[in-house]
Amino acid sequence: MPPPDISTLELLRTRIGHEIFVSDWVLISQSRIDQFAEATGDFQWIHVDVSRAAKESTFGCTIAHGFLTLSLLGKFYQDNFELPFCEMGINYGLNKVRFMNPVRVDSRVRGRFLLSSLADIVGGIQLVLKATIEIEGVDKPACIAESVVRQYFIKTQQ
Q1: What is the pTM of this model?
Q2: Which of 8, 21, 76, 135 has a CB 3.0–4.6 Å from the CB of 111, allowing a cystine?
Q3: Residue 150 domain-assigned?
Q4: What is the CATH number of the domain that holds 66?
């Protein structure tokens, strides 16, 4: 099914309460996990020690950092959420985050985004989106987050 038309602010407003996009699948490789560990300094063995995780963890393998999973929201927005009437978007924060299921190495995840609310702000709009990060082939999602995004109008449209 093609994504809904959100090419104008008026059309975006009609999508409140509805899903506005589903991302492509993203592979969570050991390399991606290791790079995240390097970037954040979080080298807990459950994430980076393949041999130990295979022997000692209840998962039988390494798992992605919860914050790695959450950090994919930025990629999902970048790849799937363009508002042609806005020139810039920022991550304004999170109201609620739950890590519900670990993401095992070499799993694929994707995001589903439902527009919960939209409010006018000076120079733009603030959106609250329910983001559900799914694991391919697994019923229980990896993460559910309430993401707050601000989008600022193209200056010539104000």
Answers
A1: 0.93
A2: 76
A3: yes
A4: 3.10.129.10
